[in-house]
Amino acid sequence: MYNAITSEIVVAYSQCPQKAFLLLCTGEQGIPHEYMHILEQQKRLNQINYLHALNALTQISLEEQSRIVTDLAQAGNLIIKATLKSEGLEAYCDVLTQVESSSSSPGSRYEPTIVVGTHSVNKEQKLELLFAGYVLGKIQGKVPERGKIISTNGISHTVKLGKSTEILIPLLQPLQKWMATSSPQPPPLILNRHCPSCQFRDLCQARAEKEDNLSLLASITPKDVQRYEKKGIFTVKQLSYVYKPRRPSKRAKNLQATHKPELQALAIRTGKIYLQHIPTFSRQNVELFFDIEGIPDQQFHYLIGLLICQDTTCTYHAFWANTIQDEGQMWSNFLGKVNQYPNALLYHYGSYEPRAMIALSKRHGTKNTGLEKRLININASIYGKVYFPVKSNGLKEIGKFLGATWTAANASGLQSLVWRYYWDETHDTQHQGRLVTYNQEDCLALKLLVDELSRIKESAQTLSHVDFIDQPKRLATQAGEEVHNQFETLLEFAHANYDKKKIHFRPDEEDGTLPQEKQKLRMIEGSQRHRKARPKGTKVIHVPDGEVCPHHDEPLRPTERLSKRVIIDLVVTKNGIRKTITKYVGNQGYCAKCQRCYAPPEIRKYSSNQIYGYRFQAWLVYQRVGLRMTYESIAEMVTEQFHENISWSYTIRAMENLSASYAETEKGIIQHLLESPFLHADETPITIKGTTQYVWTFTTDKYVIFQLSKTREATIAHEFLKNYHGILITDFYSGYDAIACRQQKCWVHLVRDLNDDLWKHPFDSEYEVFVSEVRNLIIPIMEAVQKYGLKKRHLQKFMQHVNAFYTRVITGKHYTSELVIKYQKRFVRYRDSLFTFLEYDGIPWHNNTAERALRHIAKQQQISMNFHEATTHNYLRLLGIRQTCRFQNKSFFQFLLSREIDIDQFEESNATSFI
Predict the structure, then answer these.
(1) E strand or H helix that includes residue 706
(2) CA nearest 891: which of 875, 903, 902?
(3) Tens of pLDDT along 580-616?
(4) Per-residue pLDDT reduced to its tens digit, 280-316
């Protein structure tokens, strides 16, 4: 039991609250990993060397300096081995150094220095120094500005201590509550990456196994545990029942693999290997498997193991470096051996080996080895794709499942550091032998895993212990398979169009037509289905002859040859729409320079295969873009209303034609947007052939455009707004933050988030008080907006309330509720962009305009389910024009009929003059 909160407790809490609780409240004494003893030995040796060096400089005995410091005002310039105590906190410093006092804060001031047993400095050591500076600040009345950490190699690392209070308060508050409670409740048990070196690892592991704790799965984070517990899932077994197979889109491709803990749990419960994707790598006659051992703290790689497999024979080679000076020779020997097999692939597991190879290449001047192109990371072939019935994707766990063995029962990366330390101390070949054996067994386990993945690739359908995630195997006997096939055929027979599909209940009941011939017949039928014979015109119009060659200024000589074109179009009146069939007739003109004849201009504007006129195409576009109808429904409506049998693809062609006609309209809208004093921006996902892309909108209350990007990266917004100098109104997506203009964040998003979290956490009293403070700030502002509008002269007075709110609730305040801390950070981050609307006239406080513009796309996607990339760009251009008309209360259909380019110049009363 501890009588005070020490730096060891604080560091332990940052690693694992359970560890800190056991140390502080129970008096449990576990057994630390052997590596932790080694670090302590190195730390003590470093302390002795450093303090003796200081002693030689200061001529002050260590005995005189070794005391508990309670009154620093009476101390000298240098204090060695100081223990600091204040308000139940206790910190140890190897050295306290007196620094010059400033005129604003007279008196003695000290800065802490600690000595560590590692070559590099980690975040736990920085936290230990922060804690020492925090306690020192309580004693001397001010937290020191900086402190120092002395590493094993003698380098002094300066650390700024100014934010120690902000960092330490969330750690100290729960510890102080435990100290003040007679029977404190332990925190939830969550295993993490610190467990292998923790003295309580066996105790926690046994408890986790007994509970079937979710954190037994290595991929589970504390946030994941909280998320699952809210759903009533507390064990790995319960989690295994969560996954629901979904049939992926047939058009889906290049989907990024994501690891699903539910599938890992399912594999453990069933004992099967589950496949999301079948492994794709290929095998060769000669293959190389390698593993690198190193000391990350020293950035020193001392052993490279290489397993060379050729046909059925495998030989192992170990490349060893006694010291860091021998590393270059080891690396050279390894490259020499690998280059003997220039076409062989290099298999490894994880990211450590590629990073080590890059470091070795740079350090020893072999940058262009070409090995990076031959590397195959087997972990990448497993992550999110293959789920073995093990608790992690570590090579040891998977290897043991597949039958791999290690000579040392405690073999691990952490243990290898212990063996290497003992070898450095004694040069005993026994320790070197353990390292080489461990490395060789890693290489053999990797080969065993590659062999298993290859077997899965070749025989996944027949292996009983392998199953597919989204399409589980349906096992049946030969007789059962025949029954299944006939029953499925019977179900197809019940379909309304069974007659056309020529269904047969038995496989031998064929009509004698070869499959290739059937396919050809179907293609012919499909091509003729929507072929339209040239109709006869009900109205004939004689068009004037052409006078000038379209390619030269040469006059055309009249000829007797006739050009004809029959066009089906629509006549739009106030009372309805009717179809017309017009036959255009005119004499061709002959150009002596071209030596060819040309049709009159009125006929030439129609392509040779065009049947439908502009207004007909405008009607099709209006149905799709304006009314959100599907292509199939539009084709059906054309048949019903106009007795025209068209393919659904003709609507796509009409959209392409009109989109090209309105390119200048879109440019005009963009110009208006960039000249506007404020601009809304937002984005929404859209599914294109099974993959998720994003539609971005930039809009005011009068103009709208849409743009498409393959990812949610804000590059497209940065490019569009690079010359914009107005105020940008957005939600809280961080991609907008770096755009170089004033911004206004959407209060609707913020209030919605605050309200939703309050519903989810009704008994978080600290959060409830925080939300009430926000409400008390924003409601009077909204009442002023409602009464006076968005007028600066009525709103700018509220800036005083905002400043008072930040002083009282946000700045420098310390909270325990995770929700409050989350929103406190948001208010700090967006202080300059939450209240911009108070400083200018007419700036909206929400982003509803952008959401209103995007709502049409969301509805269209619900109706159509999917988009095609080739047509989406045309659709978005026309939709931008449609939404602009809507925002200006103008008819989109009448605008299309008018053939006007500038929406601002369009007047609906004049639209009929263009019909």
Answers:
(1) strand 704-709
(2) 903
(3) 888 888 888 888 888 888 888 887 787 777 888 899 9
(4) 888 889 999 999 999 999 999 999 999 999 988 999 9
Count of beta carbons in the 10 Å neighbourhood of residue 417 = 20
Q: Which helix (H) or strand (E) holds 571?
A: strand 557-573
Show the 3-state SS of 523-559.
HHHHHHHCCCCCCCCCEEEECCCCCECCCCCCECEEE
Nearest-CA neighbor of 802 among 839, 751, 762?
839
In contact, 634 and 623? CB cutoff 8 Å: yes
Are the C-beta atoms of residues 745 and 732 closer than 8 Å to each other?
yes
Report the candidate in 72, 18, 335 with the shortest Cα–Cα distance to residue 191: 18
Question: Among all chains, which residue has been given the structure tokens 């026994």?
Answer: 430
The sign of the CA dihedral 550, 556, 558, 559 is negative
Segment 621-660, tens digit of pLDDT: 999 999 999 889 999 999 998 888 888 888 899 999 999 9
Tokens of 468: 């597919």
**Of the candidates 399, 418, 126, 452, which has an alpha carbon nearest to the alpha carbon of residue 275?**
452
CA dist 238 and 224 (Å) reads 14
CB of 625 closer than 8 Å to CB of 879: yes
In 3D space, the residue among 807, 804, 808, 810 whose CA is nearest the CA of residue 830 turns out to be 810
The amino acid that residue 512 corresponds to is: G
Helix (H) or strand (E) holding 64: helix 62-65
Cα separation, 773 vs 648, whole angstroms: 57
**Contact between residue 532 and residue 635 where contact means Cβ atoms under 8 Å apart:** no
Please name every residue paired with 729 in a beta bridge, in sequence order, or none if there are none: 680, 744
Question: Which are the contacts of 707, defined by CB distance < 8 A and separation ≥ 6?
Answer: 695, 696, 697, 698, 716, 720, 876
* Closest by Cα among 406, 278, 416, 401 to 352: 416
The b-or-e profile of 245-268 (16+ CB within 10 A means b, else e) is eeeeeeeeeeeeeebbbbbbbbbb
Residue for token pair 């498997």: 289
Q: Is-contact 845 744, C-beta < 8 A?
A: yes
Q: Give the whole-angstrom CA distance, residue 500 versus residue 513.
A: 15
- CA separation for the pair 805, 780 (Å, rounded): 13
Could you tell me how far CA 864 lies from the centroid of its own chain?
Answer: 26
Tens of pLDDT along 858-878?
A: 888 888 766 777 789 999 999
| Interatomic CA distance for residues 882 and 623, integer angstroms | 12
Structure-token match 């070559």, residue found: 119
Task: Please name every residue paired with 154 in a beta bridge, in sequence order, or none if there are none.
Answer: none
| pLDDT above 90 coverage of the chain, percent | 50
Task: Report how far apart, in Å, the C-alpha atoms of 402 and of each of 197, 255, 397, 399, 454 are.
Answer: 26, 28, 9, 5, 13
Q: What are the DSSP calls for 355-411, one per residue? A: HHHHHHHHHTT-TT--GGGGEEEHHHHHTTTEE-SSSS--HHHHHHHHT---SSTT-
∠ CA 726-732-736, rounded to 5° = 45
Cβ distance 850 to 746 under 8 Å?
no
H-run or E-run covering 468: strand 466-468
Backbone angles phi, psi at 629, to 5 degrees: -80, 155
- Taking the alpha carbons of 387, 392, 394, 395 in that order, is the dihedral positive or negative? negative
CA distances from 522 to 382, 513, 515, 527, 635 (A): 42, 12, 11, 9, 21
CA distance 549 to 604: 12
Closest CA to 87 of 180, 182, 183, 24: 180
Let me know: does 678 contact 842? Beta carbons within 8 Å.
yes
733-763 burial, b if ≥16 CB within 10 A, otherwise e?
Answer: eebbeebeebbbbbbebbbeebeebbeeeee
